[in-house]
Amino acid sequence: MRLLIDALGASAGGGLTYLRNALPHLAARPAVEISLLTGEAARTELPALDNVQILTGAQERSAFSRFLWEQVEVPKLARKVGADVLLCVGNFAIWNSPVPQILLSRNSLYTSVDFARDLRRRGDYRLLADTRAKGFLARKSIRRAELTVAPSQAFARELTAWSGREVVALHHGFDHDYFFHDPTPLPAPILAKLKESEGATRLLFVSHYNYYRNFETLLGGLALLKHRQPARKIRLVLTCELSPRKNPGSYQTGEVSRLLWELKITDDVIQLGAVPYLQLHQLYRSCDLYVTPAYAESFAHPLVEAMACGLPIVASDLAVHREITNGAALFFRRFSPSELADKVAQLLDSPPLQAELREKGLQQANHFSWEAHAGRLLELAQSLLHPPR
After folding, report:
1. How many domains does the chain have?
2. pLDDT tens track for 131-173
């Protein structure tokens, strides 16, 4: 089977994580040949694989310009490489694909009422209009593709209700050996920043800055913890910098930067900036708890990584978070700094509870497999080529 993967939309974050992990397992399957359409930025992040042909396209364009380019050029590429099935990993389908296509839909912002409300509160009507336009295309894409796949049961149900078309759930995976294999130390600047927090309880949140990861609730919770437990030294470790032009996208950091000063927690937040993926396991293991306040998610890879590293988790109460952690976390209402602080304090005050969540997390992380994901995805592709009578 010749599989054409359209990955022009996967340039950062979850899309790039997906490609980096899933591609080797798809390529390792017998009798499968892959043509991968991607941009230059993602290409440098991907491993060299013998049976993967790399094609580069118009990733540097705007999202809508790229969408139009794909509608014209991807059908041509499908014919040129002799593709049997087209796999679109960037939320948007090809309208007139000459071969059956599978759409991977993983952007929860298009269906999130909270995100729309947040943008109106911030007065970011340009991003709101942009999200609604992309959401329109994403919903139409689900109806255009022969099959749409979501990375969790919770998000699949949400997409089914939103689009009126059945969506299949297929968990993303986790490759334990790959994630932990690199012994290279963390870069010196990152180690220097971590050294400043030696002796403190470290709460970790792995994300670049954006609105839907709900940093405001996280910072509010940290301030309350600091006030309620003055004898305990607590530091929040971030894999981003809360300053302009330090994060992908058009998200403005002014409000969250002011909040650091207003809450008097500037010295309590360790802003590491981006951490190399292959050294992330060392960062997880240098921290004590993992905390996520996100109000919109479709899978949340860092939760699996945190569980695999033995970190107890405190997470916002989303159906996706409950599904992925499956009993290995404590939950709080997603816009409640007070509940976040309560749950973190509950966990810090109870070593037995920490041990219980740690053990449950280690077991739960074993249920996620990129090899199993690749196998099921190719089974779905085969079913489009040879549908049952």
Report:
1. 2
2. 999 999 999 999 999 999 999 999 999 999 999 999 999 999 9
Rounded distance, CA 370 to CA 376, Å?
A: 10
- Separation between Cα atoms, residue 117 and residue 320, nearest integer Å: 20
Residues 138 and 213 in one domain: no
Which string of DSSP letters, residue by residue, matches 208-222? ---TTTTHHHHHHHH
85-88 and 52-56 strand pairing: unpaired
Amino acid at 48: A
CA nearest to 331, candidates 303, 367, 291: 291
For the sheet with 269-271, list strands across it. Answer: 269-271, 234-238, 201-205, 289-292, 313-316, 329-332
Q: Residue 11 pLDDT > 80, yes or no?
A: no
CA dihedral over 12, 15, 18, 22, signed as positive or negative = negative
DSSP state of 29: S
Q: Look up tokens 């910098």; give the residue.
A: 241
Distance CA 107, CA 137 (A): 12
CATH number for the domain that contains residue 163: 3.40.50.2000
Q: Do residue 140 and residue 202 come from a single domain?
A: no
Indicate whether 232 and 115 sit together in one domain. Answer: no
Q: Are the C-beta atoms of 142 and 180 separated by less than 8 Å?
A: no
Q: Residue 336 — pLDDT band, cuts 50, 70, 90?
A: very high
Tokens linked to 177: 């050996």
Amino acid 176 reads H
| Nearest partner of 5 among 65, 84, 60, 68, judged by Cα | 84
